[in-house]
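Late entry, nicotinamide-adenine-dinucleotide complex.
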Amino acid sequence: MHCITLIPGDGIGPEVAEATVRAVDATGVAVEWERVEAGAQALAQHGSLIPDDVFASIEANHVGLKGPTATPIGGGHQSINVALRKKLGLYVNFRPVRMLPGLKTRFHDLPLNLAIFRENTEDLYSGLEHEVVPGVVESLKIITRNASMRIARAAFEYARREGRAKVTAIHKANIMKQSDGLFLKCCRETAAHYPEVQYNELIVDNACMQLVMRPETFDLLVMPNLYGDIISDLAAGLVGGLGIVPGANIGDRDAVFEAVHGTAPDIAGKGLANPTALMQSAVLMLAHLGERDAAARLQSAIHRVYAEGCHLTGDVGGKASTSEFTDAVIRGL
Ligand code: NAD
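Prediction complete; structure with ligand written out below:
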């Protein structure tokens, strides 16, 4: 029996979380879901965006599945994601970006299989902002050797383990010579220990253009936090949108699995959300828990629904509701 913390979240979060719980339960793996609230719902009910029981639950279970959460814009609230990642030391944000069988996108004829490694704890997400004088605001971009080395190591270790041929470090060290310069230095130092993996570097603006023009030339990408946020959404657009791409936040002790997408307020509560991204995050979670057979079965059930193409949600060109898609995946299992 695995005890897993479940944070349904806000907006479409509860809908995709419910769908994913049904799919994971249908694999036959014994899971006890410990539900805790974080986000706008928790703020309204408990007066806090992340009540203490959220941290306590993940620290006890070591594994969480999280729906997207809304952080009120302005008003001094720290982002829930930033707080969770920093407090639990979830320094790797891993996002595999793959084409799904049968899905028609602008790039469907390309065999895209990218792995994005985003540093998850610092950069402009340090939350250190202040008004210097009225009309002048400063945000601090923090890059440390410690955090840069550990994300670089995680990326190269993955490349070695999974047989990835090339690691590309994304940066803007031509302008941020010291901060991004330090990040690059750490990547180069790490690359020297993995001679079997090809290593190159790209400036972030050029990387965006190349990703759109020649996405098939990329393999594994490693980058600081902000570029990782933006490039993840760009890469999601290559394979069918935000409804697809899963993610994992991983530290030395704990791991929290969540989709790349946000709360999608425009479609929340309508039964239209695509749960694929969170289901594929659950595939990563099952593998992390050592349930490799269940992970493979859930992944191929999702692939089958895409290959058949009859029960897809609106964002990927279908007409099915969240629950119709989920029923089809469960039938496949
Ligand atoms: P978003 O990802 O919520 O939505 C962008 C677009 O993609 C919308 O048109 C939405 O309908 C669509 N979309 C996203 N996920 C989808 C899915 N599963 N199925 C179908 N369509 C989907 O981005 P946003 O609008 O910029 O952000 C909304 C809120 O989400 C903000 O409060 C933001 O802070 C929050 N957010 C949270 C997380 C997280 O908790 N991990 C991540 C990103 C954004």
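The CA atoms of residues 80 and 215 lie 32 Å apart. Will revisit in the morning.
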